[in-house]
Design goal:
Elements lengths: L6 E8 L4 E10 L5 E9 L1 H5 L6 H23 L8 E7 L3 H18 L3 E5 H12 L6 E6 L4 E8 L2 E7 L5 H11 L6 H10 L23 H14 L4 H33 L7 E5 L6 H13 L3 E3 L3 H4 L4 H12 L36
Parallel strand pairs: 1-4, 4-5, 6-9, 9-10
Antiparallel strand pairs: 1-2, 2-3, 6-7, 7-8
Helix pairs in contact: 2-3, 4-11, 5-6, 5-7, 6-8, 7-8, 8-9
Bound molecules: 5'-O-[(R)-(carboxyoxy)(hydroxy)phosphoryl]adenosine and zinc ion (ZN).
Length: about 375
């Protein structure tokens, strides 16, 4: 492949958790990236009865829908498969059944057409998504907060990531989802907790601030989740207002914790790059939809003379456009496809391979 080629069209495929997605992204000359299609099918209905993602159901749903969604994404782009320069697919980290479904489909397409296959790290997709959306220049600080991941990564360049912190136990989205489940607010819980918190009164419940005062940028949310349960049990039966007050207390504990942990990261980043103009904190992942969290992060960024970039919601949550884009960034940086057709699914795959392995793990795969 001609690595200096700047007219690139890539088909992306994502199936690592509970979204089945296919997209076509194009980068033409020095113009902005163009998302020609980005079809996302959420499996929320399949999983909601269980209050969380069921891996077997997810794998089957991906297998059933992938072909149709890929065809729709190609049709909607106005370009055929023949016009693609490469196929990009998430090969980890994530639920292995879903990863296999996506990887097998992508390999079949690549083998049949002779196009190069890029096996992409899902976390790299999130890490580079602000550049697909607009202007983020390297280096920047990324806070990734989703149902499966909670980490702070310094993004120095394509393929050059340094993890500064991550959760020692639950992911932040998971803590929202478990809080919602406990309070019978439905799934996914994050949006429900945010809505309830808006009607809550501060100061009615006293919840811990995990790792407060500790140096570094790691997170811990399982103690907070336990405290929510204990408070709910002590105050039972809960009125509607009690539930709102508890959601409020939970969200406040989360925003204060994020402010402190992210503040530590930005202080360190500023020490490392004192003269960097236009320095940015980027937030990605489904939890980035939370307005209270965004507001807090904006304040923390400004406190360190930085600005907050939040990609649009459709690029924050799981989608295939960010996977196609990661491949485009790799191609134009001259990075070879790597394993190509021999790529294997990886349930765990840290973005920063140098970082120490994480302590926490769970049924949704690597949380780091
Ligand atoms: O990135 P995402 O769509 O999927 C993955 O987990 O990879 O993130 C979904 C997570 C869920 O845990 C959901 O509850 C949470 O993001 N979430 C929110 C909000 N909207 C979605 N959490 C807090 N506040 C929200 N408004
Ligand atoms: Zn994700």
């Amino acid at each position: 492949m001609d690595m200096t080629h700047v007219d690139l069209q890539v088909l992306g495929i994502e199936s690592s958790c509970d979204e089945t997605s296919a997209a076509v992204v194009r980068l033409h000359g020095y113009g902005p990236p163009e998302i020609l299609s980005n079809i996302v099918f959420s499996q929320i209905d399949e999983h909601s009865a269980f209050g969380g993602v069921v891996p077997e159901i997810a794998a089957r749903a991906h297998t059933e829908r992938l072909d149709g969604i890929i065809k729709s994404a190609l049709d909607e782009s106005g370009l055929g498969l023949a016009a693609m320069d490469a196929v990009a697919v998430t090969s980890g980290p994530g639920l292995v059944g879903g990863l296999i479904a996506g990887l097998m489909t992508a390999k079949a397409i690549a083998a049949a057409t002779g196009k190069p296959l890029f096996a992409i790290n899902h976390l790299e997709g999130h890490a580079l998504s602000p550049r697909l959306a607009g202007k983020a220049e390297f280096p920047y600080v990324l806070l990734l907060v989703s149902g499966g991941h909670t980490q702070i990564v310094v993004v120095k360049g394509v393929g050059d990531y340094e993890r500064w912190g991550s959760t020692l136990d639950d992911a932040l989205g998971e803590a929202f989802d478990k809080t919602a489940k406990l309070l019978a607010l439905g799934y996914p819980g994050g949006p429900q907790v945010e809505i309830m918190a808006a009607d809550g009164v501060s100061g009615c419940f006293n919840l811990p601030r995990p790792l407060r005062g500790e140096p570094g940028c790691d997170f811990s949310f399982s103690g907070l989740k336990t405290a929510v349960r204990q408070n709910a049990e002590a105050a039972a039966p809960l009125s509607q207002q009690d539930v709102a007050n508890l959601c409020r207390a939970f969200q406040e504990a989360v925003t204060e914790t994020l402010a402190e942990r992210v503040g530590n990261a930005l202080g360190r980043f500023r020490d490392d790059y004192p003269d960097l103009a236009n320095a940015a904190l980027v937030v990605a992942g489904g939890v980035a939809a939370n307005a209270a969290i965004r507001g807090t992060l904006k304040d923390v960024a400004e406190h360190h003379s930085m600005h907050l970039i939040a990609p649009p919601p459709e690029l924050c949550s799981d989608n295939a456009a960010m996977i196609a884009w990661a491949a485009i960034e790799r191609i134009r940086s001259g990075i070879e496809p790597g394993d190509g057709l021999a790529a294997a699914p990886r349930a765990r795959w840290p973005l920063d391979e140098q970082a120490a392995p994480m302590l926490g793990s769970g049924k949704r795969g690597a949380k780091a």
